């Protein structure tokens, strides 16, 4: 007897989300009852990828004043137009214009070596190799370097949104939150964070497909590009503990450690001083923009001791992780992987001693998977856009004699908006964990679409009958899943 696999219907947010339905009026209104999305060449994934690339290009357009002249006319102009980017400045400032090799060649000035993780350094070096001389002028080469990096980061954006769209099989349209995120367009080319974000998105996709080793390998590569992805191992291990999936947890951990070592060990052995610069710089860095610690320092008028702030930030992060662990193990139903992943990265953002504007990129894909509701997502994005404007206006005020821009008190308000917006999104995610019936993803009875082997797995901590059925699905009140394998014939 054969079993026929019935394709699961795609969840249509315009029929379940009031904000999405209202926004769809621009394109003709919510999808109709008899619509068959994905039947033609414009599948959901392709539409989302095109939208993301369009938003990325809009972000590049927003940088035109800097590209044309503001990067080269002093700090005030690039802050006034909110188009600052590290990329062109570090082309010369970190020796790429002079042909220096990251980690191996010593730099002049206070920064002795490149202060980025190894895989990001390789990304920067490849872009430098692709940057052809233009008349021998460094200014022109900085522009070309930014364009080359923008093209490479655009590819990372496409990878990211495709991975997010495919992570939840029935919810590809959730990735439209990522594609249309205003903070992504504004911050995509400030720095190189999208490399790590794309690798983390690919790792999450692999985990949703049950490929634990591939997840670990990609997460290890992401951690070799930026430190934050390693935080995702904590939620994964907690959920595997609750599901009794120790083999998969071990494979993920082994893959992550192995991939990180493969990338880092050669540089660690051949250029140890250059390799450790990222880690020593992170420890020695003073309280910086966007953090709660900067607000405390400015409000009290005290220069906070770096070691004391490091210790306090670590303690607060450990306390937050302990709270997330308690939530993961005590929740009435095993939380979804994306929910805990978002919470732990958000905790790091909130407690860290620096918050650069592009750090929002870390959270955008995790937020779309953890809480795919347009209202909450846009509230948070509004706070982040206000912070994006606030930091440049504050820098304009502090770096020019005209005192135009935002004074310290106004900037502190912008920081508070960022902190409160992120805390608000954390609060609604925690509520979803404690009240699974309020979870948008589980409204139709799904268990954990991004959880891979965790999706529908038995809950060894369950005190009573599991909410989900043996296949991870319990039919919800508003949308029933089709038969997943009725005997044929």
UniProtKB/TrEMBL annotation:
Which residue ranges traverse the bilayer?
43-61, 144-165, 177-207, 213-239, 251-272, 308-331, 337-356, 377-395
| Domain of life of the native organism | Bacteria
Record key words, sorted: Cell membrane, Membrane, Transferase, Transmembrane, Transmembrane helix
Q: Which Pfam families match?
A: GT87
Concerning InterPro entries, the annotation shows: GT87, UCP010361
Localization (cell): Cell membrane
Q: Where is the composition biased (Basic and acidic residues)?
A: 477-489
Region of interest (Disordered), ranges? 439-489
- Name it: Glycosyltransferase 87 family protein
Q: Which organism is it from?
A: Streptomyces pyxinae
């Amino acid at each position: 007897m054969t079993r026929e696999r019935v394709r699961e219907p795609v969840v249509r947010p315009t029929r379940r989300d009031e904000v999405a339905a209202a926004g769809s009026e621009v394109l003709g209104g919510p999808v109709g009852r008899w619509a068959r999305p994905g039947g033609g060449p414009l599948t959901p994934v392709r539409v989302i990828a095109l939208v993301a690339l369009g938003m990325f290009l809009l972000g590049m357009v927003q940088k035109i004043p800097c590209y044309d002249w503001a990067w080269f006319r002093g700090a005030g102009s690039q802050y006034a137009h909110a188009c600052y980017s590290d990329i062109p400045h570090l082309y010369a400032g970190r020796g790429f214009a002079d042909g220096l090799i990251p980690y191996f060649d010593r730099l002049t000035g206070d920064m002795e070596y490149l202060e980025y993780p190894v895989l990001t350094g390789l990304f920067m070096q490849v872009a430098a190799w692709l940057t052809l001389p233009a008349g021998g002028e460094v200014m022109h080469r900085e522009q070309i370097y930014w364009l080359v990096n923008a093209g490479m980061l655009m590819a990372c954006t496409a990878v990211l949104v495709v991975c997010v769209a495919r992570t939840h099989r029935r919810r590809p349209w959730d990735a439209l939150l990522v594609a249309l995120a205003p903070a992504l367009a504004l911050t995509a080319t400030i720095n190189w964070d999208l490399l790590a974000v794309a690798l983390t998105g690919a790792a999450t996709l692999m985990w949703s497909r049950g490929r634990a080793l591939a997840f670990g390998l990609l997460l290890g590569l992401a951690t070799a590009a930026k430190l934050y992805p390693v935080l995702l191992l904590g939620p994964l291990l907690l959920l595997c503990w609750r599901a009794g999936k120790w083999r998969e947890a071990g494979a993920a951990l082994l893959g992550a450690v192995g991939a990180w070592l493969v990338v880092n060990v050669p540089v660690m052995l051949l250029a140890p001083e250059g390799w450790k610069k990222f880690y020593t710089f992170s420890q020695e860095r003073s309280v910086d923009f966007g953090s709660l610690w900067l607000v405390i320092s400015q409000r009290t008028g005290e220069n906070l001791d770096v070691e004391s702030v490091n210790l306090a930030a670590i303690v607060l992060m450990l306390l937050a992780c302990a709270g997330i662990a308690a939530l993961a193990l005590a929740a009435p139903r095993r939380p979804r992987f994306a929910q805990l992943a978002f919470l732990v990265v958000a905790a790091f953002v909130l407690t860290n001693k620096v918050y650069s504007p592009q750090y929002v990129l870390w959270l955008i894909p995790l937020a779309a998977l953890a809480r795919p509701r347009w209202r909450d997502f846009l509230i948070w994005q509004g706070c982040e856009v206000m912070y994006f404007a606030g930091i440049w206006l504050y820098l304009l005020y502090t770096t020019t004699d005209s005192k135009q821009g935002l004074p310290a008190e106004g900037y502190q308000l912008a920081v508070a908006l960022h902190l409160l917006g992120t805390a608000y999104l954390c609060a609604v995610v925690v509520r979803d964990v404690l009240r699974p019936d309020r979870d948008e993803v589980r409204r139709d009875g799904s268990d954990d679409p991004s959880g891979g082997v965790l999706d529908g797995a038995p809950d060894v901590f369950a005190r009573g009958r599991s909410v989900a059925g043996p296949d991870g699905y319990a039919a919800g009140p508003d949308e029933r899943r089709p038969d997943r394998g009725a005997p044929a014939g």
